[in-house]
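Intended use. Records like the one below are meant for learning the mapping from a protein sequence to its folded structure. Do not use them to infer anything beyond what is encoded.
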Amino acid sequence: MQKSKSFQLDDFLAGWIGGASSVVVGHPLDTVKTRLQAGKGYKNTLHCVVSIYRKETVAGFFKGMSFPLASITAYNSVVFGFFSNTQRLISKYRYGDGRHPCGMLDLTVASMLTGLVSVGLGAPVDLVKIRLQMQTQTVLAENLHLAGNVSNGTNIPLRSVDIPNQRLYRGPIHCISSILQTEGLQGLYRGAGAMILRDVPGYVLYFIPYTIFCNLLKPDAKSSPHPCSIWLAGGLAGSISWVTATPADVVKSRMQADAQLQRKYKGVLHCIIHSYKTEGAQVFFRGASVNAIRGFPMSATMFLTYELSLQFFRGL
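Structure written out for the chain above:
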């Protein structure tokens, strides 16, 4: 990544542009990943894709995208802006020059700090996205607190109750408002602990492989990487990061999809234990193949757009 003498705002702007492009590319597979991890009734990735298409058409894959498009652009702006400026600060502190190339230890520290900071903005964004993605055409009866009795004492099975075309959330703003009213501010940060477990090591395995692959693909140490090299390095880094982060991502998705109507998990540890006891160790790798596939085009697009935007801004 390019270095500069001092704090730079263009890193944030380039991250914003890269974030927007990556959301459009990756959201359909992100929806599939979320349904596989936190939903029910899907045998495998292909079955999930076919089920979504049959029940909800193509629009189902883009469910909840408006909020990520608006917010993840800001999220990626913070991530890339913070990471790049942290590198410069570390270089200035350790070597007396912000332009000095960072070593692997410097990159690791910058990546871990970036992962930690990202949760502050990313947790509410992910929570709203997942709540919207998990909505189906009907409110699932098993998620409703209904007394299955009528006045004459006849029991009505909960699964027979059908409320067509009713959704918990009308959109992102209504979702945020509902969560604040029912769960308070802490409700927006449900799953933040699992997100820290995912993002702190996840960003280390995102930025460091990208840097290594870019250096390997450069013709010589002094030249800048070719756009094709950036695209390939970014894609590989994204796949590596997302696959290794899948276990923590499963826990995070389950915690965030666990709405207040019928709360299943008391906390991160309880979610891990309950998931393991009921579904076995394989549950923590659910969606890993989707993450690997989705991680490549999303991250390739993200890094390429970021680097090209940065070159454009610094060439003005």
